[in-house]
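Thread: Newbie trying to understand structure tokens

Hi all, I'm a second-year student working on a class project, and my supervisor (Dr. K.) asked me to get a predicted structure for one chain before our next meeting. I've only ever worked with sequences, so writing a 3D structure as a token string is new to me. If someone could post the tokens and maybe explain what I'm looking at, I'd be very grateful. Here's the chain:
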Amino acid sequence: MRVHVVSDVHGNSEALARAGDGADALLCLGDLILFLDYADHSRGIFPDLFGAENATRIVGLRNARRFQEAKEFSRLLWAGLDVDRAQATEQAVRRQYAELFAAFPVPTFATYGNVDMPGLWPEYAREGVRVLDGEVVEIGGRTFGFVGGGLPTPMRTPYEVDEETYAAKVAALGRVDVLCSHIPPAVPELTYDTVARRFERGSEAILDAIHTVRPGHVLFGHVHQPLARRMRIGRSECVNVGHFRSTGRPWVLEW
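---
Reply by user tm_fold:
Sure, no problem. This is what the structure looks like when written as tokens:
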């Protein structure tokens, strides 16, 4: 049995269409949408609306952790447009979702990232593309549990849930062979981004599950340039499956 796993697709539909080649199934751990490319400031919903120069400025503010200034700068940019912010954002997201969901191979099992908009997914998840969040599926005799979204941060991304809600989703999985989430467990080596030079938000609930449930694998993404891409905790092999937008390559699990 061979499964390919991707995360942080961020608009890379061309590579996504090939991600399932040679696999029995594809797992996608979220962040389909590209709002702002931190490596190429000319790409994404934000620069499409406001230009690359403004995108460069907001990236600089965020990297400097000047989140309140970034929020105010963004507010001023939106105020200068004669459009409804929510409507313009949703239209842009819909265009990306239509292209990305069409690229998914069959079967695909997917969960949400913190920059996704879950309310729109049912409109695009065709037959053979199953969306799971706080749910378990059996693939090739192994149980895979999925937990989507992220936890609250100063970035205020679209799909952040409170710690209690997130922990309840993890608990709902019970015992699984493979625990799949968008964000990593709350371990410094797995949450630190070496390029952004900051810790991203990890989950204490996932870390607790590693110690109590002891899944064979814990798969996640979210941190694009982690200090450590994999780490063994007890019997669990914890793996950041990679920033798929930049690599275009899925992580492979075989048994």
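A couple of things are worth pointing out once you decode it. The CA atoms of residues 181 and 248 lie 19 Å apart. The longest helix spans residues 85-103. Feel free to ask follow-ups in this thread.
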